[in-house]
Design a protein that fits this description.
The protein is elongated. The termini are far apart. Strand 10, helix 2 and strand 11 form a beta-alpha-beta unit. 32% of the residues are buried. The strands form seven sheets. The protein has an eight-stranded mixed sheet. By secondary structure, the protein is of the alpha/beta class.
Length: 419
């Protein structure tokens, strides 16, 4: 009896081994066939160089080294990576994701994550779907297109999260938004009232001519309005912080109103280049500074400005209006509190309007350095820096040709009446 039982157990053990061996062989064959099917299926639908790596049983990563033609992404793919080497070109015409893929779907020639709503891959023929929540760093890397289409309005567009290092508009010349069933170019936009901060790159390269900013805004982040065609922009007094290069490559601007110049109000070493970077406008016709009371060193270096008006009484630092600037008219509506002796050293200003009487001018405090005045060769004071100096007398701008020193003046500052 025991002999039969042992023999039966031995046979069962051999059978199980055979079954395990057959299962192993079948799984191996299916795996090989599956990889072959994936490769053959992709090669059938596209002309691009790819690598498909088995990372966990039936989970695959798609690595795209170069892309052109029509791309098909099978159901197996769980991750998509662009190998953006030097010379990488995205010349994709269309993108389609298998309907059984549980991680991605395709719409408007875009690949979208089902879980995060992030657009991970696009092409020159993409129409970004309404509902896209974010755009991956390299989604449009290597694309050379002229127009990008978005299936929503500009209000929807500004809610999308972008990576500032690889904004999709780096690769396109224009973006068209969908209004009333048609794709249109937008040239005017009003910032929503519920905003308090304008995100970085929010309106980058949209082609706006006018932007309306309400007093609900307290901060404007970097490159917020860069690469647009503004002629006029008004930054309200409610703004407390301004990011660098907010008007980068906005070379058409001719009228600018701002509470201050630089990142924060009355910040030393601030200049107009903080807004524009090294992309100087052709010429600014009107610049109004509404709140700032400190004009820092080289505040307008390399700029050409027809009219500058400071609304508040100001302190002027060294070389504030020095060389390499062109200003036709400079107005101080509430006058000057103090001024470095070389604030206007070798500057070129045609007319300065001092919105106060002569007594106020004579009482300007000239700033000392190391206990002594800074003397410079050339034109160092208001008279010496311009062709004509005007004072507001009886509400009229008046050019002075006769001066009587008031008895209250006991000291005449250096260069006060030079030139």
């Amino acid at each position: 009896m025991n002999y039969k039982k042992n023999k039966w157990e031995e046979e069962c053990k051999k059978f199980r081994v055979k079954v395990y061996l057959i299962c192993f062989i079948v799984c191996t064959v299916l795996s090989i066939v599956s990889n072959f099917v994936v490769f053959s299926k992709i090669k059938t639908y596209a002309d691009y160089k790819i690598n498909i790596n088995d990372i966990n049983d039936d989970t695959y990563i798609l690595e795209i080294e170069s892309a052109k033609g029509d791309i098909y992404i099978p159901a197996h793919i769980r991750r998509i990576t662009l190998i953006t080497k030097e010379g990488y070109v995205n010349d994709i015409k269309s993108i389609k994701v298998d309907k059984d893929n549980t991680f991605f779907y395709s719409e408007g020639n875009c690949v979208i994550s089902k879980y995060s709503g992030m657009l991970v891959l696009g092409c020159k023929n993409s129409v970004i779907p309404l509902g896209t929540k974010a755009i991956a760093d390299d989604a449009f890397y290597g694309v050379e297109g002229t127009k990008l289409y978005y299936d929503g309005t500009l209000d929807n567009w500004v809610d999308i999260s972008f990576n500032s290092k690889n904004h999709p508009m780096f690769h396109f010349d224009e973006i068209l938004f969908k209004y009333d069933g048609e794709y249109k170019h937008i040239d005017t936009y009003r910032i929503p009232k519920h905003w308090s901060i304008i995100p970085e790159y929010a309106f980058y390269k949209i082609g706006l001519l006018f932007i309306i900013i309400g007093d609900n805004i307290t901060r404007i982040n970097e490159y917020a309005f860069a690469c647009n065609k503004f002629e006029k922009i008004v930054i309200p007094d409610s703004v407390e912080e301004i990011g660098q290069n907010i008007l980068y490559l906005c070379t058409s601007i001719n009228t600018l109103t701002t509470p201050f110049i630089g990142k924060h109000i009355n910040e030393a070493d601030s200049n107009l280049s903080w807004f524009f970077g090294n992309s100087y406008p052709k010429r600014i016709y009107t610049l109004d500074v509404t709140l700032e009371t400190l004009i820092s060193d080289y505040a307008f270096h390399n700029f050409k400005i027809n009219n500058i008006t400071y609304k508040k009484k100001v302190d002027i630092m060294r070389n504030a209006f020095s060389t390499k600037i062109t200003i036709l008219n400079l107005t101080f509506e509430e006058g000057i509190n103090s001024m470095a002796i070389d604030a206007f050293h070798l500057s070129s200003i045609e007319n300065i309007y001092f919105n106060d009487d002569l007594n106020a001018y004579l009482n300007i405090e000239y700033v000392k350095y190391d206990g002594s005045y800074i003397y410079s060769s050339g034109r160092v004071n208001l008279f010496g820096s311009c062709e004509d100096l005007y004072f507001k007398i009886d509400n009229e701008w008046t050019k002075i040709n006769k001066i009587v020193i008031p008895e209250s003046i006991t000291v005449i500052n250096p260069y006060m009446f030079t030139y």
